[in-house]
Records
---
Amino acid sequence: MQNCPHCNEPGLSVSRKLTLGPANAANCENCGKKIGVPSSAIWYYLPFFIVAFASWPMDSIVIKGVAWPLAFIGICYVQLKLPLVKR
């Protein structure tokens, strides 16, 4: 569980944090207030999107088979490391 920035208690599951984005928020399970990730998070995802979309037109299944999972793992890692903020 991730700590809520409002009540500083565990209020958000790891799986729910993975679904958050700069444009959406979640409610804390303890206090019910809105929490989310910073709006600047989109810049952290950008390199992974570039890798994934740059490999799209390539014919090599090996390149796609490596680039896409690495991009997905990278985005998940960044998402888990982002701090939660008040909304």
---
Amino acid sequence: MSYINPYMLAALAAAAIPVILHLLNLQKVEKIEFSSIMLLKEIRKSRFRKLRIKQFLLMLVRLLAIVFLVLAFADPYIKNIHGKGSDVKRTGLIFVDSSYSMSASRDTANLISEAGKIAGNIEGLFSSSDKIIRVSTSVPAGDSTSAVKTIYRPDLNSLIRTAGLLAPDNPPDEIYVITDLQKVNFSAPPYIKDSRLGETNFYFVDISDANLANVSINNVYNDTKIPNAGGRIKLRVAVKNGGAGFISDARLKVFASGTLKSEQTLELKPYERKEAALEFVQDETGEIPCYAEIEGINRNDDAFAQDNVFKFGLFIPEKIKIGIIKGRTAETKYLASVFDAANSDIKQGIKVYDYSVMTSLPDDLNYDVLFLAGYELKSPDEKNRLMKFVSDGKGVFVFPSNDYNGGLMESIGSVSIGNKSVSGASLKLND
């Protein structure tokens, strides 16, 4: 695809000047014959023939000089032609994948540093008159003067959208992508909305030639039913071995407010995902910053150190405000005795479980948790208020009557019914 400045083509009209001068020289003149020069006619004809050829060549040289001068100022070039000459102009985008996986080390350097060297080598293939833009997936937004303002994921479709934003006037001739080609980033088929990119050449440089082993903490699950100060916190930590090696002595630790609370040694089979159960007692109340960390893994089995820590939080209230709403034939004294016993087990004189017993759903549901003992909803308004209570993240425990059919639970949202307890069995509060 060629390009030339259309405004400069108007100057080609000057090419008519040599032609006009040539035509003026061809004007006929009056001939006067003298007897003394009759013998020179044949010599004159041959000389005039040579003169006319010289005049034509001179006109052609003048004409071409004007045409080439105009074209030089018009700055023409041909797109998608490779070369190092200064007369070839190309626009190139070099995308360097700096996502999480590119921090993996190979030999003595990590992948992201190797990608930078490769990008420099690619830039050397362009001439000084070419336009080159190097972009990284971690480019900050920047200010209004920033040449690159786009933050994008390293997947192919985000890359295509970014290419259109960086070169809105002319699509790039060549796009280079230096990446480890993670499946999670390049599994979706490309969607090229800008048809002009159909003329763009894409080049993918796979910088990772091996599947790297890695151990990571994927998630932390809080299994504590009602967290309270001085009570036990129950957690499940999901750990994944992403390599083919056997991990024999990985140390899993849990910290709360910067203090080690619990630890466990794990064995992980190749490609195994395991959930480890850990418990600890938490005396502080309020928002508690926590994190789980795994240590003691050989570097060859753990390419990325960044995913060895998983941060999470706990909220421990000073008091848990409980509303016990009983039905007409229900008995709640046994339920209340559970909270009384729990308060006596925590600290002398501290009432963590602050409960109130009512016979109807109050207008102000200013409670952390509700216990419905044989209580049936009496109006659509009660149903709506209870649904909002649940949607706000509060807890509802239902102790139905013997003839209960599940209608109450179905009306307040997606609730699963637990196992029926045997009459007379003892239950702990955290159960």
